[in-house]
Amino acid sequence: MTTVLDRPPALRRVRARWGWGVGALALVLWSLAGAGAFAGEVVNPAGTAQFGRFAAAALSPALDGDFLRVLAGSVLVTVAYAALGAALAVLLGAVGAVALARTTWGRRRLGWTLARGALAVPRGLHEAVWGLLLVNLLGLDPWVGVLAIGIPYGAVTAKVFADLLDEVPRGAYDALLGAGAGRATAALYGLLPPASGGLLSYSFYRLECAVRSAVVLGLIGAGGLGYQLSLSFSSLRWAQVWSCVYALALLCLAADVGGRAVRRRVAAPRASGDRLRRDPSLSTAVAVVLVGVVWSWWYLAISPATLVSDRTGAQLRYVLSAAWPPDVDGPLLSAVGRAAVDTVQMSVIAIAVATVGAVLLAGLAARPAQASAGRRLVGAVVRLGLLLLRAVPPPVWALVLLFVLLPGVLPGALALGVYTLGVLGRLAAEATEELDPRPRAALTALGAGPVGGWLYGVLPAATGPVLAFALYRWEVAIRDTVLVGLLGAGGLGALLASRVAAFDWGAVTTVLAALVVLTAAVDLLSARARAALR
Predict the structure, then answer these.
(1) In terms of domains, do 283 and 360 share one?
(2) Residues 295 and 350 both lie in one domain
(3) Which of 20, 46, 376, 532 has the fewest CB atoms within 10 Å, i.e. is most exposed?
(4) Which of 301, 320, 355 is at the close of a domain?
(5) Predicted confidence band at 110 (pLDDT cuts at 50, 70, 90)?
(6) What is the domain-level CATH number for residue 378?
(7) With the C-alpha atoms ordered 48, 384, 84, 320, is the resulting torsion angle positive or negative?
(8) Rounded distance between C-alpha atoms, residue 198 and residue 283, angstroms
(9) Residues 6+ apart with CB under 8 A from 198
(10) Is there a domain that residue 324 lies in?
(11) Domain match, 296 and 339 both
(12) What does the pLDDT look like over 275-287, one tens digit per residue?
């Protein structure tokens, strides 16, 4: 009798992929049913007129001098938060990378495992959650925005930096150890220099992400563009809302273009003979960022004394004593369980919407090597649309969708899906650009039309990378559900907001623990699914 182990590996991989595919479809259907998509009323016809006014205002944004001055000030605040938050994240990442790299631990796997596990809490909590918690410790101090970006990003950066250090040659590191240097010193002088290109590239990527996070923190009161957008939205001043949206798009575009240019220079360093030359453009970019960090410190009037003040210490001791032990009452655990189910369903719907949209738009958004002027124009419009989708934070999309949908999990899920489509669509387009163009060219030479060439020459090869990106974004989406949850869309975010508002710190600890565990479970499931796709 043939056993599972007797089957060819290729057949086992195919069956495993089919199993994952069927499971994913069942998960999507279960999530849609749980969100009420198949039963009851989900559309709000009364909001159609308001949605029409909102959409019409896109063609006439507010351009009066007074509002533009306010908008410019909001942009500066957002940039300052992003610069300082990213700088703190890179500093924490550089320090933590030495402690997290497998190379520096050698054969002491237990210590390495414990060090990596310690990052689960800061990585598992969204920056908006950190902002919500820090407001209760520091009040409306500029440190809230800086720390809310720097702490979770620092944990992520430390992990990525450590992986980069583990990939560089160990010759210089081993030589320094052999000469009597300590592990930290050997890592500093033997591992950091050869890894500097990758570290610099990722640092600028973190700066791009910090811009969007600074906008999100503005929605919960940290100031900047997000705060101005929230004020305009709550007062139904749609022209001002669109001015904020366009400013967001331009800011995100500048961050994307600048970060991509830096990463291209790092990937293709300049050489003179057999030696690498210092790139003046990279040096200028680093100098500009450093000057920006100093300016941001001055502009936000950051004071280190705030962190060590008696008030901050007393508030921290009070919160920690009230938050431990966690609340494990039956009613709260039942509420946490229901909220966790809503959170999972919200994230699954969001990723399903984003994946379908990314597959449909990837071909149009990609930049083909040879294309007509009309095709290039269509691609530019689609890429601009994707930029707008990811420039607007998910809570704002949720508020827009509430014009035409009844409150519940579904508007939050779709809002998160729209935002994720902006990110995933860009990644899918870039993956499509990197594919081998010969299969599609051969089909075109045989008489296939554009649609046929896409379906049979591009889509099969692009499916794997797009699904891998989608699974990665699922890990991010499970954290982003907190954003729309804080505004009442349901899930663990809504439960967390209500417990913080009631100063029920024992319950807050329980909800935070549930968030970390759920995030870790989704990360593990996503990693297993990506492995099955390889």
Answers:
(1) no
(2) no
(3) 46
(4) 301
(5) low
(6) 1.10.3720.10
(7) positive
(8) 15
(9) 164, 167, 266
(10) no
(11) no
(12) 445 667 777 777 8
